[in-house]
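batch job 7 of whatever, protein = Lactate dehydrogenase
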Amino acid sequence: MTDAAGVAPALVEAAELERFATAVMEAVGLPGADARTVAWALVTANLEGIDTHGVSRLALYARRVRAGLAAARPRLRWSHPAPAVALLDADNALGPVAAVAAMDEAVRLARSQGTGMVAVAHTNHAAALSAYVERATEADCLALMVCNTPPAMPPWGGRRAFLGTNPLAFAAPGAAPGEPPVVIDMATTVVARGNIIMAAREGHAIPEGWAVDAEGRPTTDARAALAGAVLPMAGPKGYALALMIEILSAIVPGSSWGPHVRSPYEDWTGPTDAGLWCLALSLPALMPQEIYRQRLGSLLEALQQEPAAPGEEIRIPGARRAATRTRRLAQGIPLDPATLAELDALSAELGVRPLAWRAP
């Protein structure tokens, strides 16, 4: 396997990558538990094939903390205005720290109340949201998480970025013991902005239909796309979903919205100030486990028995990421040359033991 330039990526063991990411976060002042949380979230994204939201973000996280634009040791402040509702002021915590705290609290509430809702104010980029909803399935919960992000998408009919890519993630426990959960993780734009950031980093063009430049013209130039806007998925429907997520994750908890959310890459004048919102539903409160598994199993089996289009395969969301995790745990996580060079520079900058890797 090689990249577009014909260069084979380095392979890194998951445990080694997590060791390195933890050490980096500790070097910039995070306590051990929070450093491990951030490392877990980033490496989980890499394990599941979401490399745009994995350790390619590590240097950004570390440098935002060093610049005082994300809190190394936040004071999480909770309030519980109703039995199944919690509000969290994350005090500018890194996104994974806030997201794990939020989902764990939603699960705790769901276990006692049947459902738990948590809204989070004043946080940062949270890596891939799938990690947190998958975490909830381990506690026999269905889970949904959304967040707002810096401006990337124009309102439908507009040409200037206003809303973020505003992702949503949902997970449901698998239909049998040992089966992977059903996992849906998607941006409300045609593509996550991280894919365009990665293309710009590697000097690649992007497909037509992903983005427009600053003048509203279609572009395949990744850098021009970053200066312009990513298009909403499904036209006005994607825009409407992004607006719904903005309300849940910014208006409800009291975080910044729309153009007031700062880009962590481009704006070093203040904190990002993004928000999160999550919901957990306890399956044992809804039905016996065997009934759930029978119902879901019947649905998934029927889906997979449907005739496939020529050259296509019917997949259950979450199955491919589970297979990728299994393969990367066995073979190692591939890191492209640009990401590896950035991590090497970060190691030297912070005095952290360099990342050990091998050629494929």
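notes: The mean pLDDT is 95.
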